[in-house]
Amino acid sequence: MARAIAHPNIALIKYWGKADPLINLPAVPSISLTLSELETSTSVTIDPQLNQDVFILNGKETINPKVELMMNAVRKIAKKEVFASIKSSNNFPTSAGYASSASGMAAIALASNQAYELGLDHDGLARLARLGSGSATRSIDGGLVSWPTGTDVSSFGRAILPPEEVPLAVFSVTTTAANKKISSTDAMQIVSSTSPYYPTWVQNSTDDYFKALELIKKSKWEDLLALAQNNALKMHAVNLAARPEIIYWQPESLAIMQQVQKIQTEKQIPVYFSLDAGPNVKLLTLQKWVKEVATEFATWDLQLSLPGKGAQIIDQN
Ligand code: PMV
User: Fold this and answer.
1) Which residue among 18, 125, 146, 230 is least crowded, i.e. fewest CB within 10 A of its CB?
2) What is this structure's pTM?
3) Can you say whether the dihedral through the CA atoms of 28, 139, 280, 245 is positive or negative?
């Protein structure tokens, strides 16, 4: 048995589009920040009595094809045909744009590596996590993490800057805990095959990735957050233009985005927004502005996260 914890991450430059859907190779490189407060805790217990894996998410037995895909990969590496009981719980709402699959799959990769004695190193773990959910490859590490495009061997999350050197803060604003309607995998498939803006997105977001790396190197944090906001809007623009059209926003999402814009222009507080494949908004700011941002958005349900650590094993026997 082994237990691991992992944190979700918010992409500042988004992963949106697959070069190879079977093994989650991205069409675009991405950059994320691992979030401290949100956490998934997962145990993997090998049980020779089982004739299939059992996955329990937040106390409820659940069928999850991503988990199965990963566990099959684990057994292939281990060369062992034994099944496991996997128990996972999140301290935040599942499937509401909080990237619970990122922390979930990263925690399963770590716990399985230990329980099945796979002996994987960092890169092997990041590649295994990627198979479950692309963005999970970026939750193996803490702080700022890049995920370049490439092959099965070369495309995985890599630490850029450790959490203690990243002066950023993120507020998760809960607008609705409702399940998202279109999974990111389905949306990426629809978008890449129907959105007229998709080729432009791939080109432009790749440019954003290299710009962001440069801004991080120069510690130009506010410029980085402004770029992140623009990158998120471009991701949603490709969705809006797809057939069928994909709209992840709820009225509250737009209200928050407009409130952010108003504060940017009228109060000069460095606050920016980002949204993933769901209605919830993340407010991006600098740690030294956390108090002001919290005051401005006091009417919303806010959860503050600082740069978080990478996934780690917390228990084994
Ligand atoms: O890892 P997935 O398949 O859940 O896709 C995540 C996609 C976004 O969260 C919208 C963007 C990202 O880079 O995390």
Assistant:
1) 230
2) 0.96
3) positive
